[in-house]
Structure formats: structure tokens, C-alpha cells
Amino acid sequence: QVQLVESGGGLVQPGGSLRLACVASGLSAGRYRVSWFRQAPGRERELVASVNSEGDDTDYADSVKGRFTISRDNAKNTIFLQMNSLKTVDTAVYSCNVNFGDWRNYWGQGTQVSVSS
Questions:
Q1: What's the pLDDT tens digit per position in 17-36?
Q2: Neighbours of 80 (CB within 10 A)
Q3: pLDDT for position 101
Q4: pLDDT value for 68
Q5: CA–CA distance from 29 to each of 77, 78, 84, 98 (Å)?
Q6: What's the CA gap between 59 and 80, in Å, rounded?
Q7: pLDDT of 59-110, one tens digit each?
Q8: Alpha carbon of 21 to those of 14, 55, 67, 72, 74: distances in Å?
Q9: Neighbouring C-beta atoms of residue 107, cutoff 10 Å
Q10: What gap in Å lies between CA 15 and CA 20, rounded to an integer?
């Protein structure tokens, strides 16, 4: 059974930093892309960042480029999202997603990030 467990969310002041982690277990062998999505109240879920299996192909939403960095530690089955220079508009529930490109598409339960003074 696949499980994705996020951690690292919390309350931070504008300009601060947080590091999210997503630990994956039960994944079958194969190449898959890992992404972080977020959803704020009253808004649609949006893709924040994604990375391929090798970790050398990343993609970011324009709103977070230069501030967020996605990375993965395959040995520990962990995906990270380093978030710097946080803004109030970054407040949302952040969820981890693993997609094999076929029917295998998995989600974590999400972690709340709140940016407020």
C-alpha cells in the first residue's frame, strides 16, 4: 500500500522559510514524477513544483520561481520543498503527489502552511 506522509508545515512570518518533506513508502519500482501542489481556501489546487525520477528535471510555478526549491533523496524515499521568502499568498495546504504516468497516481494528506504577521 502506497503512503505519502508530509511534514514541515506551520505558521511563519512573511519573509520566513519552511522546509516541507514527503516520505513515500510502498512504491513499486519504476520511474515517477513527484510534485508538490497547494490549495488555498476558495481557490483551485495548483501545481507548485515537480521533479523527475533522476532529480535533474524540475518545473516550478511562476509565482514561486526563485523562492522555492524541490529536491528528492531517493535513498530515503523523501521529497523536499524548501520555501524561502514566504508571502501571505503562499498560505495553503500543501500536498505531495507521485505520478507514474499511468493509473498509479498517489496523494498525501497535506500539511498546512500559514504565512502571517
A1: 999 999 999 887 778 899 99
A2: 19
A3: 87
A4: 98
A5: 12, 15, 32, 13
A6: 14
A7: 999 999 999 999 988 889 899 999 999 999 999 999 999 998 888 999 999 9
A8: 20, 15, 16, 9, 13
A9: 15
A10: 16
Within 1-117, strands assigned E span 3-7, 10-12, 18-25, 33-39, 46-51, 58-60, 68-73, 78-83, 92-99, 105-107, 111-115
Q: What local confidence, expressed as pLDDT, does residue 53 receive? A: 86
Q: Could you tell me the three cell numbers for 32?
A: 515517477
The residues, ordered by sequence, that sit 6+ positions from 44 with a Cβ below 8 Å of its Cβ are none
CA 113 to chain CA mean position, Å:
11
Average pLDDT of span 40-69: 95
- The grid cell for 47 is 501545481
Cα 91 from Cα 83, distance rounded (Å): 12
The answer to whether 51 touches 62, Cβ cutoff 8 Å, is: no
